[in-house]
Amino acid sequence: MMSRSYTNLLDLASGNFPVMGKEKERKRFPRVMTVPGSIAELDDDQTNSVTSENPSSVAGERMIIVANLLPLKSKRRPDNKGWNFSWNEDSLLLRVKDGLPEDMEVLYVGSLSVDVDPIEQDDVANYLLEKFKCVPAFLPPHLLGKYYDGFCKKQLWPLFHYMLPFSADHGGRFDRSMWEAYVSVNRLFSQKVVEVLNPEDDFVWIHDYHLMVLPTFLRRRFVRLRMGFFLHSPFPSSEIYRTLPVREEILKALLNSDLIGFHTFDYARHFLSCCSRMLGLEYQSKRGYIGLEYYGRTVGIKIMPVGIHMGHIESAMKLADKEKKFEELKHQFEGKTVLLGVDDMDIFKGINLKLLAMEQLLKQHPKWQGRIVLVQICNPARGKGIDLVEIKGEIEESCHRINKEFGKPGYDPIVFIHRPVSISERMSYYSIAECVVVTAVRDGMNLTPYEYTVCRQGVSGAETGSNLSGPKKSMLVVSEFIGCSPSLSGAIRVNPWNFESTAEAMNEAISMAESEKELRHEKHYRYLRTHDVAFWSRSFLQDMERTCADHFSKRCWGIGLGFGFRVVALDPNFRKLSVDDIVAAYCRSKSRAILLDYDGTLMPPTSIIKTPSSQIISILNRLCGDPNNTVFMVSGRGRESLSSWFSPCKKLGLAAEHGYFFRWPQHEDWETYGQSSEFGWMQLAEPVMKSYTEATDGSEIERKESSLVWHYQDADPGFGFAQAKEILDHLESVLANEPVAVKSGQFIVEVKPQGVSKGIVAEKIFTSMAEKGKQPDFVLCIGDDRSDEDMFEIIGSAVSRRILPYNTEVFACTVGQKPSKAKYYLDDTPEVVTMLESVAEASDSPVSSDNESDISV
């Protein structure tokens, strides 16, 4: 059977989906899919998996950790018949469970670092699930290369580290086939997650940039799945990120998570800036938590640098002591001051900048020649990154040059180690190093300074003076462009591009008084002890639980195609307005109040021609012609426009400028309903707005009879938002003693008389009808924007406040599926017009104007 969601991955990658036939009815919908027609139509029938329709055999909550690689070591057996698997103790993901509740089961989903023959894959998968609770995703070779070495390493990795593809040889151009492979692999991962997922009880925690579109695949199937994402790499500034051709697809996919985590505020700030500039989303901070409102859902933003596992470091130190590595290195570097660098062979690690700084140090401070050694450990590259051959050649050339110039028999100032180094050997180098130097030009986190600090503290309970006791002092010279830098306040921070200042920082570090080294070390160790990997994972889980707390208190819809898919979460009482229901209520009622907004409600917001059509005029006249109806147009537009446009509708009441001007049906004169008719405050407010308009390109002032509005929707989003907050404070200060209200809205700051709102208009209409003995038993109110929420709020409380009778049938309706104080919605303007047409037809006395098609403009 053909899948209803999409026929192939190329459709998904391009965002084009064909319309499929109707899917057969399922026997039972899981609890997370209770809204008819929302998610079932997106299921992929070709996925052979255990879905939520199959009850989980595991009771209670579980954590499913999804990453590119499983935390396993894989090795072919000597007889070439099968595989040996063991935990990778160095894997950070393996340590995540230490911060989770003891009774929470942890499953891992990811790929293996080895290629398993298709014949063996089922056996391997069953074995790993049973013995390790790991679900392997076997990636086809034709996808793996384009996915990992291609899109991940040649597109995302350079871009996230601020490297733009200025030429085909420098960074690599965007390749659509690589993006499609990336999408394919993410979809494959989603199928593996679904195989073991119990969506009602499980948490899903996705890790890093390899799986940034996975949230969309999972959210398409389970709208209430509790899902978090953590990015372990930097997130670039919006100027860099928006060069990515699939920028919006990735942003929207991430926003299908409930919680998105970053190491530093800088990374989070850049992500929020991208959401603002590209998607028009603004974040809010409440009680210390940052959140993005996205179609009724609050997407949490978590800022928490990852820690290390203290016990793992201590175990490695004990192993190093057992292997006598400490003594070996102490003897090798006896009498020397050792500086240490531990980095991957990567273009962004700044290894050659570190070597240049070392060269500068030896030149500027000759006293260190023959006495100081920089040991640079280079771990092999993790993939086929950019310019690796050139970088390796440059490093080796610098090592050779420096050793030739400053070395002598038995002494090389640079010791370059380019091979895999075990963690126990790494601990041995940490133990003899007076200072660790990290000069990465960009790095997501970098845990080397953390490991070094903990190693220098030693093993708790070790005998004083032993190799395991530790000197309890350490010095760090770290780049200001790495994620761990903000949390190491005692480190000497450097700009790695300025290798001269780095050289001075290195000199300062090794020349510092011992007492100062101890104090700095103690400060760092105290932080690391309380902010380990268990604290990090526990904190992330707590925030995920908090963010997902209201999942089952809202009604959720899955809407949109491709990576435009998102979930709309709304109040359970919020539902689509039924034409049959409202017509039936209309026919039952004896006295009716109908309040209509104009722009965005009767007139499409995208329409260039704003004058009402003959159809609208006809509908209004038929509604107004019923003697049981009181019909009002309640708009933010000026009274001249409304008077001109609706002159054919003699029995239509008008409220202009949100109700400041008011005209009753069959009256010619306008009434004023503000608390003051004095507008001297405009002379104070307008100069302030003009100054901000001159300073903010793309902004403008709209002057109405009763109000002033500063618009900034065409300004730079970040600057416009900042200026809006400034002008709001400025105007509130200047107008503190004036009878006006200063309010901010969607890309506007408005100053208007106090006591003016559409809600007040609604209240006055109801009160007037009651005074005339025509208290309404039917209320229909339709609007689309923030100003209409005032009407919905008043109407919602009108019965309890006895403004309306207890038996009044109230239909407060917003246009579009979005969070609202209204209890009903219609999708768009055409639906509103169709509904009003049906209501007009049901009217007992349809009366038309003599000249209803004559519109005065």
UniProtKB/TrEMBL annotation:
Superkingdom of origin: Eukaryota
* Gene3D superfamilies in the cross-refs: Glycogen Phosphorylase B, HAD superfamily/HAD-like, Trehalose-6-phosphate phosphatase related protein, domain 2
Record-listed E.C. numbers:
2.4.1.15
Q: Does the keyword Endoplasmic reticulum apply?
A: no
Which residue ranges run through the membrane? none
Single GO molecular function: alpha,alpha-trehalose-phosphate synthase (UDP-forming) activity
Q: Does the keyword Lipoprotein apply?
A: no
Record protein name field: alpha,alpha-trehalose-phosphate synthase (UDP-forming)
Origin organism is Abeliophyllum distichum
